[in-house]
């Protein structure tokens, strides 16, 4: 099959670009002397995860138990569920573990730890548990200097659980855009997570695993002393948010949405395509960054950027393409510059590809990827959604 045969809209993976992204991250982690545990929430695709494992990443990170179940069924047995565990989900965790899956769960409170321990004691089973550490005030986690950290560790050591280590995610790195700032937040993430591990060990508690990571900090860290593994996800595809952060170029983005021009509003300079927010998602992650790409950046059918053209607006099944206003730092909602040549430049039936703001969100709109190789041949790789 060729791209011309693919019904639009469709999620397209540039296979060669993806392989370069996989190799780049794996090589960097190998050089820094830590294990890479890719976050498969980005692709939710067994074929993609297999390529990451084949490159040298033995374990994976998941954001849903659905991911854990699907990947375990495909032969992945070293899995970290990096979202705080809800007590009601422990039955599924237990089923996976009793089937042979080395699945670890996450807590960041004494109450959460007590729930895991109580279920473990009732089942005569010791769950593997990691404590989440807050290193940047971005989201969840325990302060590495808090007494709560030690309290959680002691609860987990009382039976019904095995304390495996600590975990942090410097999500605030997504709001940065200079190498200096990224290196600083990467070092802060490392230092504070290692500090949490040291405090647990000083209290006589085990802490074999020190897990940190985000794509920006993984690619910006200069020193990972005391860290055992790094988690990163979106690097496998990259996206426009990551391009604005500065850890990739737009031409390194491996995921795009194939779409077809279906109409024009010539006086407004618009081309109308058959990919709206149901294809691109509503994620406007670049809106607060230096370059606002609207709902995505426009490329030709071969994936080459069409300079200055973005998806200005999106309805459910319609996308509005137009030029970004010269010098503008924001993309208007449906506001374009007049372009009398828009119909000539993008005739009805023209195939285009749109680079996404957030690869995870855009990929989630589809049940399969159209994977195109350097010869232009297309293979279909299934993906899954759900929790």
UniProtKB/TrEMBL annotation:
An annotated GO BP: D-serine catabolic process
Keyword Lyase: yes
Coiled-coil regions, chain positions: none
Organism of this sequence: Rhodoplanes serenus
Keywords: Lyase
Family: Belongs to the DSD1 family.
Keyword Cell membrane: no
UniProt xrefs under Pfam families: Ala_racemase_N, D-ser_dehydrat
Official protein name in the record: D-threo-3-hydroxyaspartate dehydratase
Annotated ranges, domain D-serine dehydratase-like: 254-373
Taxon lineage: Bacteria, Pseudomonadati, Pseudomonadota, Alphaproteobacteria, Hyphomicrobiales
Lineage top rank: taxon: Bacteria
SUPFAM superfamilies (UniProt xref): PLP-binding barrel
Gene this chain is encoded by: dthadh
Single annotated GO MF: D-serine ammonia-lyase activity
